[in-house]
Amino acid sequence: MRECFELRDADAGGRIGELTVPRAETTVETPALLPVINPNLDTISPRRLAEEFGAEILITNSYIIHGTEDVREQALEEGLHEMLEFPGAIMTDSGSFQLSEYGDIDVTTEEILEFQHAIGSDIGTPVDIPTPPDVSRERAEDELATTQERLEVAEDVETGDMLVTAPVQGSTYPDLREEAGRHADATDLDVFPVGAVVPLMNDYRYDDMVDAVAAAKRGLGADAPVHLFGAGHPMMFALGVAMGCDLFDSAAYALYARDDRYLTVRGTRQLEDLEYFPCSCPVCTSNSPDDIRALPDREREEELAAHNLHVTFAEIRRIKQAIRAGNLLELVEQRARAHPTMLDGYRTLLDHAAQLEGSDPVSKGAFFYTSHESARRPEVLRHHQRLDRLETPESLFLTEGEPARGDEFDDSWRVEPPFGPFPRSLSKSYPLTAEVPERTDRAALEAAAEGICRLVEANPGMDVALGHRDWPSEVLALLPDEVELIDLTVA
Amino acid sequence: MRECFELRDADAGGRIGELTVPRAETTVETPALLPVINPNLDTISPRRLAEEFGAEILITNSYIIHGTEDVREQALEEGLHEMLEFPGAIMTDSGSFQLSEYGDIDVTTEEILEFQHAIGSDIGTPVDIPTPPDVSRERAEDELATTQERLEVAEDVETGDMLVTAPVQGSTYPDLREEAGRHADATDLDVFPVGAVVPLMNDYRYDDMVDAVAAAKRGLGADAPVHLFGAGHPMMFALGVAMGCDLFDSAAYALYARDDRYLTVRGTRQLEDLEYFPCSCPVCTSNSPDDIRALPDREREEELAAHNLHVTFAEIRRIKQAIRAGNLLELVEQRARAHPTMLDGYRTLLDHAAQLEGSDPVSKGAFFYTSHESARRPEVLRHHQRLDRLETPESLFLTEGEPARGDEFDDSWRVEPPFGPFPRSLSKSYPLTAEVPERTDRAALEAAAEGICRLVEANPGMDVALGHRDWPSEVLALLPDEVELIDLTVA
Ligand SMILES: [Mg+2]
Ligand SMILES: [Mg+2]
Ligand SMILES: [Zn+2]
Ligand SMILES: [Zn+2]
């Protein structure tokens, strides 16, 4: 187990963890949101972030501080904590983002890490190369090699008890992301940003974002704290957490406020388009959109930023509570309906069900079947895998609900979409206690049929009959020929 | 148009309306939430409901007031508005609920309406018979006949400018609900509660609730303000509004608070199970669950009731904003994932797509395809109906994306799941500007195939080819034989 990170609870790929930040003499509970502070202008003061919004950690840019003389001198003299008046942990970025935007920066990893250490940062960052999506494989490989050299340099810089991040790059090549994750994990660095996903987010490519994170996670160990770098929209936090991300940073709360943009977990709204505030936060319960529109620029920006932060932190709490209750994927189900690209993201997450199954607890609250997508959840996959190992009688009657017949068989098992067959003795164990809709769907029936297939394959020679109620012929066609079919709706 | 109710905007079956309440000299914007006030104990004072939560209308029970001597005398003397200190509109219930619970009450419709008028109620209610679900048809018919007699009595009671409700009963018989709606609509009464749905809600029978509302709505005119009587859980407001309900009442906010129950749009939580507050309201941003648990009973109840109200009113605002923006069904999509029974409710709503299509605007923002269910939305149905009337050439090439070939044809149309075919000139008009996932699904493809079938049926003899990319054979099998199939992925 990595010393600085301890896992407390898990659901799907998501987890509640404790990141110990020795230099700040504090621990940060994850999933955590790091508000981005621009040292040159702050919309909401760091002190207010801590006191009013409960921020335990924030992030600021050491490259900007380094490049702004008076701020640099102040930071060196007072230290970041005093300068920003923030009691929690402070992470610093290195200028890699500026590198990716402007093509050139004038510090090395060594210099910037030493500077970060000198100004009292609690978590520092080397200068990696944020390779954008869709570049040539050659470029992705070359830049990854450079990033990896920089991480090795970073390991040797004298940074005391400051934690240091090891960004994971690799563009849109899953094998490179995985290799980058494995390399980073093998360093003695501490926190692992999945880098250069901002261009994916900007283009709503949540499917590709999920693939990038999944690949990085395969390389990183389960005990690595993962930062989804540059991901600040609350709409996608649940998806990111379910894939195994622990840290998010948000510049969006302030940048969007500056443009009169209003965050919601269903997407972004323009203030001018709102006739009602779809929110219960202190800003939205004591003001109407007209009230806010009537404010002078600076105050309007501050109120919108406060709303944006309330929504953002509430979603983080909602996610933590969902992990505790074991219904994180039910929350992802809802968020997936915010935009068709979020649905793509969720469908892609389910491609990685086998990977998520590894960390998913064997028992939780109740499994809720709430869409066709639910049929592909890790819990269903796990049940199917288990079917290979269950002991079976010589002849077996499978049926939904109570056995309507089956005296001729040695035993009768239940069949429940989407899980498929199971011995009645398991009826009260997770996930077979699932709540399912009365109106089932073909995805659930097909998954049940798949379960039957696995059971039959694992038990050649077993005599099997299925008593079903009006299953569609396409679903029945999925079953092996040796399964005898009995339509129970025919008297 | 009914004088007291004016429609301002619509989306699916939902609408924003203005209910004019002459006796209160006010108008109430709908959808509206009526907090239920128990005249004997109030957790949150009516004045605070108005000032802090923006309540424009509340409901209290005239039967309880009538039966409690000191309260009755005070109400008769001061009037309800002064007694409750509430500046908005006040609706009164009649004791029908008590009748359904205890089997007997000691007032007649005439008496209770006169009493309601005497105490200054703005919207009064006769004593109808709330027939529970699943009773015999005979009982449902008998009781409906009684309810209808009472409505006729109510028409003749002298009630000045007090509005009077006409409850719609009929148990779980859709034809009776529809007939009851038609009868109520023909009276000169003003507001139309769909009654006796509480037992359905208590059993999570959102599917049956939707069918009951749909039937009542078929009988009522579009201009009738509809009250979903006893429905106070914010999880189902969007579903109720999308079916055409305008008024909701909530006793839940207070009753649940008394039992340490915490409302969310994803369902109810027990305070003891919460480690984090999944909410951004003033209560939840300034307290942790531990803080609230540590409070004395009375204060804890008040804080929970305040949270419950914040969530409830925020959902009403969210729904109104969704109607304005034209994305109410996208909100219903999300709420449908709160519980499998809510999914049943949404799937049932889509059974009534043709009914909802009647009020759905022809143009809105962007249609978001966010689930298999989206394929059955009214907008898809409308496009299919339109296909019967579009002018077609003698030979037509249909294809996803750009025409890869088609020179041999008179024209080339686009095919987009879930809509199906349309002339390229319509590409920029609603709903064909839809945002759809990159990963389409079989429901979308099947709906597109259905569109092709309609087009072909409406144009016998037309020469049609479909250029598709790897459509599954089950979907292709839905197409008429005369459609030539060209798999564009085969070079
Ligand atoms: Mg893509
Ligand atoms: Mg049912
Ligand atoms: Zn807000
Ligand atoms: Zn709250």
Automatic annotation (TrEMBL), chains A, B:
Location of the tRNA-guanine(15) transglycosylase-like domain: 13-340
Binding-site residues for Zn(2+), renumbered to this chain: C279, C281, C284
Molecular function GO labels: pentosyltransferase activity; zinc ion binding
Binding site for substrate: D128, A196
Pathway where this protein functions: tRNA modification; archaeosine-tRNA biosynthesis
Cofactor needs: Zn(2+)
The keyword tRNA processing is annotated on this UniProt entry: yes
Catalytic activity entry: guanosine(15) in tRNA + 7-cyano-7-carbaguanine = 7-cyano-7-carbaguanosine(15) in tRNA + guanine
Active-site residues (renumbered): D93 (nucleophile)
Enzyme Commission number: 2.4.2.48
One protein family per Pfam: TGT
Keywords linked to the UniProt accession: Glycosyltransferase, Metal-binding, Transferase, tRNA processing, Zinc
GO cellular component, one term: cytoplasm
Family, similarity comment: Belongs to the archaeosine tRNA-ribosyltransferase family.
Name of the protein this chain belongs to: tRNA-guanine(15) transglycosylase
Source organism phylogeny: Archaea, Methanobacteriati, Methanobacteriota, Stenosarchaea group, Halobacteria
Encoding gene per record: tgtA
